[in-house]
Design goal:
There is one protein chain. With 206 residues, the chain is of the alpha/beta class. The protein has 2 domains: 8-12 and 122-202, Barwin-like endoglucanases, CATH 2.40.40; 14-120, no CATH class. The chain has 5 helices and 14 strands. It has helices at 21-28, 78-84, 128-133, 176-182, 196-202, and strands at 8-13, 16-18, 44-53, 58-66, 73-75, 90-91, 102-105, 110-113, 117-120, 123-125, 141-147, 153-161, 171-175, 189-195. The protein is globular.
Length: 206
């Protein structure tokens, strides 16, 4: 079917961390404020940076996202997970039970998180009314085509999230491994070519 929002931007999301205010206080000092690094609407890239340390390696200057959340979560790629020496656990954002932990170091202190390291599932944001008008709902899995020069790629198992603005459009986030796989640049565009169930109809289990 044709979707009313047509093509939409596909953004590559590099490794970053979400923190609780209590964790921010331990890492940066009591009362430290997470502030945007430029104009911000909703979730934003902040000026704050931390170091994350795994069993095998570390990453310096990992971006802290704002505003603060009610849980700590480090989002990395599968390649990052191998570099750090932690399991690459694929999860939706916020689903952190049973995930690996990590050591986080800031300018004023450090914490050891007992969970929260995930490889975030690729996803598409849109408003609930936009989703409903197109026969989609929260948690649906679709086939998303990302256009690029010579490496246009179709990704399956792309989750629909209906927490976006109801402006009739859509926006996708993929990680750095996925961006490299499809040759995505800063201005990549994508579109939905069908639902995962459509693929299963073409190739039913025997």
């Amino acid at each position: 079917m044709a979707y009313s929002f047509g093509k939409f931007p596909v953004k590559v999301s590099a490794r970053h961390i979400h923190l609780r205010q209590d964790t921010v206080d331990l890492l940066f000092g009591k009362g430290h404020e997470i502030v945007p690094d430029g104009p911000a609407h909703g979730q934003f890239l902040s000026t704050s940076r931390v170091t994350v340390i795994g069993p095998k390696n570390r990453f310096e200057r990992v971006a802290v996202m704002g505003p603060c959340r009610n849980f700590d979560q480090l989002e990395i790629s599968a390649t990052d997970a191998r570099t750090l020496g932690v399991p690459a656990v694929l999860r939706a954002s916020g689903d952190i039970e049973g995930t690996p932990g990590i050591r986080v170091v800031g300018p004023a202190g450090e914490v050891v998180l007992d969970k929260g390291v995930i490889v975030a599932e690729r996803h598409i944001h849109m408003g609930p009314k936009t989703a409903e008008a197109n026969g989609l709902k929260e948690g649906d899995k679709v086939l998303m085509c990302v256009e690029s020069e010579g490496r246009t790629t179709i990704f399956g198992d792309t989750a629909i999230h209906t927490n976006g603005p109801d402006n009739g459009g859509a926006l996708s986030h993929i990680d750095t491994d996925e961006g490299n796989a499809c040759g995505s640049g800063k201005a990549a565009m994508g579109y939905i070519v069908g639902k995962m169930e459509d693929l299963h109809k073409l190739f039913p289990d025997e």
